Amino acid sequence: MVNTKGVEPVQGGGRGGLPLAALNHISVVCRSLQGSVHFYRDVLGFIPIRRPGSFDFDGAWLFNYGIGIHLLQAEDPESMPPKKTEINPKDNHISFQCESLEAVQRRLKELGIRYVQRRVEEGGIFVDQLFFHDPDGFMIEVCTCDKLPVVPLVPVDANAILGLPPPPPACKRPAAATLKPAPPPSLPAPVAVPASPAHCVVPASKAAAGSCVGEVEAMRSCPEHACMRV
After folding, report:
1. Which Pfam families does UniProt cross-reference here (predicted)?
2. What is the Rg, in whole angstroms, of the alpha carbon atoms belonging to the chain?
3. Strand, helix or coil at 93?
4. I want to staple 61 with a disulfide (CB 3.0 to 4.6 A). Which of 51, 136, 205, 213 is the partner?
């Protein structure tokens, strides 16, 4: 019930699994071979194919969607368990993905097949499901399950088994407690600045007389010429 697009099967599986390749078929024992063939052919769209002639019991093979359906005629139909009337999504079932659940619903209503509808939500992704029975009470599901991504529970091993890209590496940044505080920024050494010289004052008497002696004396006492007069 997940999206398997881009997931390549890996022969042998993982951790010593059997060297399997793919699902080949499911087998269903039925009360009426003719009735079951009609259901799987005309309702589910399976195509009857040739069956080995060496079998000494009645049955039929059908194929579509990459898998086979093998129907077996029950030797004693009356001894089979009573047909289930309640549609329980938790029962054993086979599930098919579909492109339009609305189209499936319309077709089931046209055929008069009773069904129940469910919705699953996971991380903001919604999957819609329809459940109904075949003529012998075996449950069929049709869903939009391809919306759910394949998320391995053991990312490192399972990603390689399923042919998925490796998970992103874990963050190697040390914890805050182990980080050493950075040293304070170094400041430039202070530079001594000489005090500003006192303002040179020219005696008013000399300035008023228009003499330049006061200006020369002021220049001598004021190296920065702060009191130079023009």
Report:
1. Glyoxalase
2. 46
3. strand
4. 51
SS3 assignment for 101-164:
HHHHHHHHHHHCCCCEEEEEEECCEEEEEEEEECCCCCEEEEECHHHCCCCCCCHHHHHHHCCC
What the block records as the tokens of 67 is: 């898998």
Which residue among 99, 141, 217, 224 is the active-site one?
141
What is the chain's percent helix, strand, coil content, to nearest 5? 25, 20, 55
What is the DSSP secondary-structure string of 189-227?
PP---PPPPPPP---HHHHHHT-SHHHHHHHHH-TT-TT
159-183 residue pLDDT tens: 555 566 666 655 555 555 555 566 6
Sign of CA dihedral 89, 93, 96, 102: negative
CA–CA gap between residue 74 and residue 30 (Å, rounded):
6
The two counts, helices (H) then strands (E), for the chain are 5, 8
Q: pTM higher than 0.85 for the full model?
A: no
Residue 1: Cβ within 10 Å count = 15
For tokens 């619903």, name the residue.
105
CA-nearest of 160, 135, 142, 137 to 150 is 160
Angle, CA of 4, 149 and 97, to the nearest 5°? 50
